[in-house]
Predict the 3D structure of the following.
Amino acid sequence: MSGQSYSSDFTYGYTGNAALWGSSWDMSSSVLGVNVQDGLDVSGVIYQYTTVKDKEDDFTVTVQNKDTEGGYIFQEVDDWSNQYGIRIRKVIPLPYVPIARFGKGEIVTTGTGSVEDANVIYMYRYDACFNPQNDPECAGYVQPMPVIPEIIVYDALDDELVNDATKETDDKLYDKEEEEKSKSEEEEDSLRLEIALASSENALTIANSFTQGSVVRSMNIATNLNNYYVANISGGSYKDSAPLEGGTIVDNRNAFKSLGQDNLMNQMIGEQYK
């Protein structure tokens, strides 16, 4: 597990176990557990391990880092010859070496024996203002220039669609299209005229019907038939004063004689129609 502390100018800390996954490692951020970048200096190495060996056996253990510029930037040798195997822990201070100088790290052994439970940790100091542009609070920070977007000027002459639209066309094909267009427009005009005439005729029919209805209503209003319904004719009542003598009405037998004359009249009328 890595850790860190802070001061007014620097951040101090230590990395995770670089030897966690084996006896060799690279100095990457994923291995060390810290952000490897400019301004990060290694100030020391802390390592510990357990040796497994017999006392009389010759055995050496070397913890080291290659220098990216050649040789070794850090190297510590432990000689376990004629000694019992035990667990060892060492702290090796370094003079703030930029981490960019630290190449591949490894634990190398010679002789008879083995190393178990190795742990290699790097102490570091980080200068956040190593690059003043990292923080506006750093001395020497320069306000960056705003990014000016690239303005692309549209050129219609380079537009393929415009070029296709402005290409010269076949005159015969163009004339044919114009003729078809004119014919279509004439048919549309004729259809609009027919619709307009039909609409006018319907409007006149509706207007005539409306006019006739208006005339009838005007006549009814002028006549005012209600006057005939409410008229009062004076005259009183007529009383029948002729008495009926005998109480019965006797048939007039002389009237039957006129029926023969009626038949003769009907025959004369019939002959005239014939």
The two ends are 143 Å apart (CA to CA). The chain has a mean pLDDT of 80. The CA atoms of residues 5 and 273 lie 145 Å apart. Residues 171-223 form the longest helix (53 residues).
